[in-house]
Design brief:
The complex is a heterodimer. By secondary structure, chain A is an alpha+beta fold. Chain A is built from eight helices and four strands, in the order H-H-H-E-E-H-H-H-H-E-E-H. The chains are: A alpha+beta, B mainly alpha.
C-alpha cells in the first residue's frame, strides 16, 4: 500500500487503529511514534488518540490507556458473553495470595518479613511464586539488613492487567480502614 | 460471652461450635486453619462479629489447652499452629501487663493493647483491600484485549550476500595467493565438478566453513583457486550450498544445504 505522506488526519488515525487492534498488548507512545518514522509530534499523537477514542465510543471496543500504553479492549457490557467462550480460564487466587498482593500493592517495597508481620502468619513461598509467575510482582532490591531480604513491588503488567495507569488509581488505602477497635478499661 | 453460631459456615456447613477464643479444638484444627488466614484473622472475627474483648480471653485455660494439643499438631501444619501460639503468647503478655499495678510516677504508659489493635486494624484494611483487588476486572478473565489477526512477517531471513561481497572476498583470496605464489610448470587437469564434490564432502564433516578457509593459499596455484571459486559459485547456483554473512565486512560462511 502506497501511503507516502500521511498528511491526512484520517489516514493517520487509521494507521494507529490498525496497529492498536493487531497489537494484542498495550502500545506506548514511543511504540506508536515508530509507526510514523519520526514524522509525528507527541502532542499530535495524543490528540489523534483522543479522537480515535471518541470515534469508538459507539462501537464495541474501548480505546483505553493503561500503565504500558494504549490498547483496545471489549466494552464491559460484552465481557459477560465473551467469557463464556473460555469458562475455565477464570483463575481464582486464594485469600493468602490476594492478601499478599494487596500488601505488596499498598505497602511496596516490602520484604517477606513485612508481609508476615501484617498477616500474622508465615508466608508460603508458593504464594510469592504464583504472583511472580503471573509477572504481577518482582524483586526491586534488597533491604540492607542481615540476610538482605528481597524487596517486592508490583509490576507494570499488574497495572495493565487491572486496567490501571498507575498505583494512584487504586482505591486509597484509607478507604479500607474500619471503625476503631474499642478498648475497655 | 454469647456467640451466634449461624453466620459461620465451613465448607457450606454451619458450624455447631464456634471458636470461643483463640483455642481451637484439636479435631477441628484443620478446618479452622483453612477457614481463617491466621490468628489475626480469627481474633478479628471474634472481635468484630462477637464483640470479644481482648481481655476477656481466658488466658490460663487457653495456655493449658494450647500446650496440650501442640503434641497432636505435629502431624498437621505445624508452622501455622505456631503462628496461633505466638499470638496467644502475645495476648498473655498483654493481659499480664494490664494486671500489674501501674506505678504512679510513670505518667503515661502506653496501653499494651494499642500495638495489637494497630496490627488488627491494619490487617483488617489489607483484608478488605485484597477483597477489592479480587473483585476488580482482570485481563484474561473479565477484560478482553483486542488482538485482531495480523500476519507478522518476522521470519528470520539469512543475510543476503551480494555479488560485490563475493567479488571482494575473491579479490582477497587472489591477493593473498599472490603473496605465496609458486610458479609451477605443467598442466593440471582441473575439474570444477571435482572441486564441487571436494567442497561438498568437506561440508559433510564441517557443517559451517568460512569462505576463505576453502582456499589453500599456500599450496594451490591461481588456476586451482579459480576453479575452486567457480565450484563454489556453481554449488550455490545449484542450491547445494548456502553462503551467508552476518553483516557487512564480517566473515562469509559456506554450509551445505542438506546439513540443516
Amino acid at each position: 500500500m502506497a501511503m507516502k505522506e500521511l498528511d491526512n488526519i484520517h489516514q493517520m488515525k487509521q494507521v494507529l487503529e490498525a496497529a492498536l487492534l493487531t497489537a494484542g498488548q498495550p502500545l506506548s507512545l514511543d511504540d506508536l511514534l515508530k509507526l510514523f518514522a519520526g514524522k509525528m509530534e507527541r502532542t499530535t499523537l495524543r490528540m489523534l488518540l483522543d479522537e480515535l477514542k471518541q470515534d469508538w465510543t459507539e462501537k464495541t471496543l474501548d480505546l483505553v490507556q493503561v500503565a504500558s500504553g494504549y490498547r483496545f479492549q471489549a466494552k464491559v457490557e460484552y465481557s459477560e458473553f465473551i467469557t463464556r467462550l473460555n469458562p475455565d480460564r477464570q483463575q481464582k487466587y486464594s485469600r493468602a495470595v490476594m492478601e499478599t498482593l494487596a500488601i505488596i500493592a499498598y505497602k511496596q517495597p516490602v520484604t517477606r518479613g513485612d508481609i508476615e508481620q501484617i498477616r500474622g502468619v508465615a508466608v508460603n513461598p508458593n504464594v510469592i511464586r504464583q504472583l511472580q509467575e503471573r509477572e504481577w510482582i518482582d524483586v526491586v532490591g534488597h533491604r540492607e539488613v542481615p540476610g538482605r531480604p528481597s524487596l517486592y513491588a508490583t509490576t507494570r503488567y499488574f497495572l495493565d492487567d487491572l486496567n490501571l495507569r498507575s498505583l494512584a488509581e487504586l482505591p486509597p488505602f484509607e478507604d479500607f480502614a474500619q471503625t476503631e477497635i474499642a478498648l475497655s478499661n | 460471652m454469647l456467640l451466634n453460631t449461624h453466620d459461620i459456615k465451613i465448607n457450606g456447613e454451619t458450624l455447631n461450635a464456634l471458636p470461643q477464643d483463640l483455642y481451637i479444638p484439636p479435631d477441628a484444627l484443620e478446618v479452622y486453619l483453612d477457614t481463617f488466614e491466621g490468628p489475626l484473622d480469627l481474633l478479628l472475627y471474634l472481635i468484630r462479629k462477637h464483640n470479644l474483648d481482648i481481655l476477656d480471653i481466658p488466658m490460663a485455660q487457653l495456655t493449658v489447652q494450647y500446650m496440650g494439643y501442640v503434641e497432636k499438631m505435629k502431624v498437621i501444619k505445624l508452622e501455622l499452629a505456631a503462628d496461633y501460639l505466638l499470638m496467644s503468647a502475645m495476648l498473655i503478655e498483654i493481659k499480664s501487663r494490664m494486671l500489674l499495678p501501674k506505678p504512679t510516677e510513670v505518667a503515661e504508659e502506653d496501653d499494651p493493647r494499642a500495638e495489637l489493635v494497630r496490627r488488627l486494624m491494619e490487617y483488617e484494611a489489607i483484608k478488605l483491600a485484597a477483597q477489592r483487588l479480587d473483585a476488580m476486572p482482570v485481563v484474561g478473565a473479565e477484560l478482553q484485549v483486542a488482538a485482531a489477526y495480523y500476519q507478522h512477517i518476522s521470519q528470520i531471513k539469512p543475510p543476503e550476500v551480494s555479488l560485490d561481497d563475493l567479488l571482494e572476498a575473491w579479490k582477497n583470496v587472489l591477493k593473498r595467493a599472490k603473496l605465496n605464489q609458486h610458479h609451477k610448470l605443467g598442466r593440471a587437469e582441473l575439474s570444477v565438478r571435482e572441486h564441487m564434490s571436494l567442497i561438498l564432502r568437506r561440508l559433510q564433516t564441517e557443517t559451517l566453513v568460512e569462505f576463505s578457509a576453502l582456499f589453500d593459499m599456500v599450496e594451490e596455484g591461481v588456476p586451482k583457486l579459480v576453479v575452486n571459486f567457480l565450484a563454489i559459485l556453481e554449488l550455490a547456483k545449484e542450491g547445494l550450498i548456502r553462503i551467508t554473512q552476518q553483516s557487512a565486512f564480517t566473515p562469509i560462511y559456506v554450509q551445505a544445504v542438506s546439513a540443516e
